[in-house]
Amino acid sequence: MSHASVRKPGPALAGRLGRLPGRLGWAGRWLVLIAGVFAWQGWADGRRSVFFPPPSAILANMYHWWFSGPASHLWLTSVGSGNILPSLYRMGIALGIAIVVGLPLGIVIGRSAAVAEYLEPLMHFARSIPPVAVVTVFIVLFKLGTEMEVAFITFGIIWPILLNTIDGARTVDPLQVETARVFQLSNRQRIFKVMVPATLPKFFAGLRISVSLTLILMVVAELTGSTNGIGYLMNAASEGYNMLQLWSGVVLLGILGYVLNAATLLIEHRVLAWHRGARRLTSN
Fold first, then answer.
1. 157 near 214, Cβ under 8 Å?
2. pLDDT tens per residue, range 156-179
């Protein structure tokens, strides 16, 4: 057979073949997860330990307590809506504040060497303080309640967003800035058409870290004296030695963490589609 008779796969076939490893990877990860759940179930059934209930009992408890409500209430029971929704609200508000403050402030600091010289030592000092160590300070300042919890979470999650945005703003290609100046773009156009797009890859790197921290700090804030929330339920379960309820909270946090991470990656994939295309063109 001559080389001329060998046909290369068409674009459609090549695209399907290119997506195949990714699909197999997803299938493999789900198979590992399912195998782990079945292994946990078998081990728990054999041990019958009150400290490590089987996944079937945990899921049944989660459904009965939280997700057996009417469709008009998103299938949430009164316990679910009274505790899961407040936790999501606190996380959403804190993450929104961190983004609204961290992104523009990071661009300003990253583009000004003088401002960065004065503020960076303070920022690195503040971000080195473990948030758990200052939770009592926030209780004194804001008292117990949603304001304290939101402020505490915001303090802990703003640093990855802010510092990564500063780093991204610093690394904006000088040629792009100079080109924008030559074309006489206004300051507003330079910010939104040059600096913000160039900063977004680093910003999303910090955002992924902050999203994970949001879940952790939400639980810590609610463990310190909240009257509702997932952390509050877990604290009540531990005080009553209700291990099934405690494990239900742990599994729920794991599911929330997975969903939030997947949502963040999806948004990043959509927003930075141009960035990946530019990198492929550069590499070629």
1. yes
2. 999 999 999 999 988 877 777 777
